[in-house]
UniProtKB/TrEMBL annotation:
SMART domains: BTB. The lineage of its organism: Eukaryota, Viridiplantae, Streptophyta, Embryophyta, Tracheophyta. CDD domains: BTB_POZ_ZBTB_KLHL-like (cd18186). It comes from Papaver atlanticum. May act as a substrate-specific adapter of an E3 ubiquitin-protein ligase complex (CUL3-RBX1-BTB) which mediates the ubiquitination and subsequent proteasomal degradation of target proteins. Residues 50-119 form the BTB domain. PANTHER family: BTB/POZ DOMAIN CONTAINING PROTEIN, EXPRESSED-RELATED, BTB_POZ DOMAIN CONTAINING PROTEIN, EXPRESSED. Pathway: Protein modification; protein ubiquitination. InterPro entries: At1g01640-like (IPR044784), BTB/POZ_dom (IPR000210), SKP1/BTB/POZ_sf (IPR011333). This is BTB domain-containing protein.
């Protein structure tokens, strides 16, 4: 009969073997992903079969691939879905928020899935500002609660304020469905922000009505 200590040791070895196997599988998948994205990076750098030009605020336009841009970025997906971008492959889209160097690094990030620390730190502000503006452009009833969550994770007060204002303005549409209950249960601190914003807005409205009656 096997001793308890032997059974524990056997389980331990089995657990280690399973963990090692899992690590190897994850590593293999990561290598495959890096290799896969590497192919896109090469196509980008060598300008292979590009079908659209992306224009910065200065300098020459940068050739890219519609399919990859649309797949990797909701911003590009919406831009490319516009009627003006459905014509010939020689079409271009403009990102005036970026200069040539910033745009090149931004596209490199989309193609490669990462950006060197030095480049990231150098362009952090412009990238963050671009993302902020694009998120606010896309803000609507279908994503307002999610945007509020994202603003909290990113500690972005501009997005948070805009999202809260949008939710308050569309209270009936957003607060009554069951999805709001799930959101509230998951984000009690954001609910506190929401309640506070509602109170401030109500107070301002009362003051406004008071002055109008005078």
């Amino acid at each position: 009969m096997m001793k308890l200590s032997d059974m524990k040791e056997q389980r331990k070895k089995k657990g280690i073997t399973t963990a090692q196997k899992w690590v190897e599988e994850v590593h293999e998948k990561q290598e495959g992903l890096i290799s896969f994205l590497g192919g896109f990076a090469v196509a980008f750098k060598e300008v292979t079969h590009t079908d659209i030009l992306v224009e910065p605020c200065n300098g020459p336009a940068i050739p890219a691939h519609r399919a990859l841009l649309a797949t990797r970025s909701e911003v590009f997906k919406n831009m490319l879905a516009a009627d003006t971008c459905k014509a010939a492959p020689t079409d271009s889209i403009s990102l005036q928020e970026f200069n040539h160097e910033e745009l090149e690094d931004f596209l490199e990030f989309l193609y490669c899935g990462n950006l060197g620390k030095e480049k990231f730190e150098k362009h952090y502000y412009s990238l963050a500002k671009f993302c902020e503006l694009e998120i606010l452009k896309l803000l609507d009833s279908s994503n307002a609660l999610k945007v509020l969550e994202v603003s909290d994770v990113c500690s972005n007060e501009t997005i948070k304020i805009d999202a809260l204002e949008y939710i308050i303005k569309h209270t009936e549409e957003l607060v009554l469905p069951p999805t709001f209950d799930e959101f509230a249960a998951k984000n009690p601190h954001l609910m506190a922000n929401y309640n506070r914003a509602c109170f401030i807005l109500l107070k301002e409205k009362k003051l406004e009505n008071k002055y109008l009656q005078v």
